[in-house]
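Every protein is a chain of amino acids, and every chain bends into a shape of its own. Below is the pair of lines this work produces for a single protein:
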Amino acid sequence: MKKKLCLMLVAAMLVSSLASCSESKVNEEKETTSTAETVANVTASEETEEETKKYLDDLPEKMDFGGTSMRFIVEEGGNGNLSELSIMAEEDTGEVVDSAVFTRNASVQERLNINIDLVDTIMFSGLPAVVRPSITAGSDDYDIIGTYQYYGISMGPEGLFLNLSNVQNLDFSREYWGTNYINNMSYKGITYWATGDIALRYTGGMYVTYVNQEIWNDHLSDQDIYDIVNEGKWTLDKLYEVSDAIYEDVNGNGKLDAKDSYGFVFDIEDPTEGMAAGSLIKFSELDENGTPYISLNNERTLTFYEKMYNIIANNSGFWHTEDDNKTVMKMFSESRAMITVNKLFQSGIYLREMEQEFRIVPVPKLNEEQEHYNTMLHDGVTLFGIPITNQKLEETSITLECMASESLKTVTPAYYEVALKVKYARDNESGMMIDLIRENVSADFAALYSNNIANVVHFFRTNLSSKKDNIASTLEKSQKLWNKSMSKLLDNIESNANK
C-alpha cells in the first residue's frame, strides 16, 4: 500500500510541474532538474514512513563485501540504451532516470561495500555468441549476465546458467521482481532468469496504442478516444472503422510510401504479438500437471487473424513496414500517422520533440465482449542470469536482490511515474491509461521461449507478411513441430535444473 501511495503522490506532484511538454529547451532542462529533486524528496519521504525498516528487502541493512567488483555484461536492444542504463549511469546528469539509477547504485554500493561494474555492452542479438564460449571454457569473466529475452533466454536450459530457484537470497515473491513474468518462464519451479523493476525494458516494455490527437480531431471530432476506451469499445473492428480511408498522398507520386499520411501505420513484426496479446491470444497454457502445451489452435486465434488480415488487406488508410520500428515511429512523430501500436518506452525515444498532441491508450481488444484490455511486454525485456562459472555467489545474489529492491524505491518512480506517465506523455488521461494498461500484463511460456519452439510467437507476423488469408491448415501443420520442440525444451530445462 505504501508503494502505491508513494507512486501516486509522485504523479500528482509532477503533473503541474510538467504540464507543458512543448516549452523551450531551457524550460525543459529546468523541469528535469525539478523532477529529479522531487523524486529524491518523495523517496526520502517513503523511507521516513518505513520507520523500522530502511530497505524493502529482508537482507541486513549493512554488509561488507570488501569492495569487490560485481561485473555485469548486458545486451542492448535496437532502440535506446535502456538495458545499459538499467545497470549504470556514470554520473548524475540531472535527467530524471539517470539521476535515479545513479542514486540507486550509490545506495547499493555503500550498503554492501561493492563496486557495480558494467564491463561490456553487446549490441542487439550478439550477447550469446560472446558469453557462451566464455562460460563453456570455464572462464570467470562475468558475475551477472543481462540478456535480451528473445535471443538469450534459450541459454538457460543449455546448462550454462544456475537454476535461480536454488540460489539463496533471491526472493522472487517480492513486488520488486516480475513475479508473474518469472513464473511464466519457469517449469516445475525451475527458473534460469529473473527480471522486474531492475530492468527499464520490463517497466516500459508494454505495448500501447499511440493516437495523434490533431489528426483524430480533423476526421473524428465527434468521437473521443478516451470515451471509446472507457466504454470498452476500443476493439480491432473499431480500429478499422476509425482509420479506414484516412490517407493523403503527401509527396504526390501516386504511390503508397513512408512519405504519405495514413490512418494507421504498423510494423508487422513484434507489435503483431502485442496485438495478439491485446486480444487475449494464448500461445500456451498449463495442463493439470502444470506442464505447458501449445494452445494456439482454436477459434479465438482464427477470429483474431481474420480481423488483423482485414485491417492489413482491406483498410484503405493502412500502411505497414516490416521490422522497421524507426520508420513507423518517425512517421507518427512527424504527424503522418493517426494511429500506431508500439512499445511504451519508445515515447521517450521518438516523441519527446513531437509538436502535435498525442494520446496513449491500450492495444485494442478482440471484441466488446472481451472482459478487459490486455497487453504483453516486448520480447527485448532484459533478463538477468548467473553463469555456472560464478565464483562469488553470495555477493552476486545479494547484489541482485538489493538492486531490485532499491530500483522499486528509486528508479521505478522516476521512470514509470515521472518519465513515462508525465514527462513523455501529453496529458493526465494518458497517465491514467498507462495505469489501466499495466493492470493486465500477460506472459506465457511458449511466447517467452519461442526461439526454442520453432518461433511459435512469430506465427501471426509470418502469415500476415505473406498475406495468407486463411491459417486454419497452417495451424494444423505447425502443431506437430511445436509439440516436438516443446517436449525437447522441457527435457533440457529439467535435466540442467540442479546446477
Remarks:
- The chain has a mean pLDDT of 91.
- The radius of gyration is 23 Å.
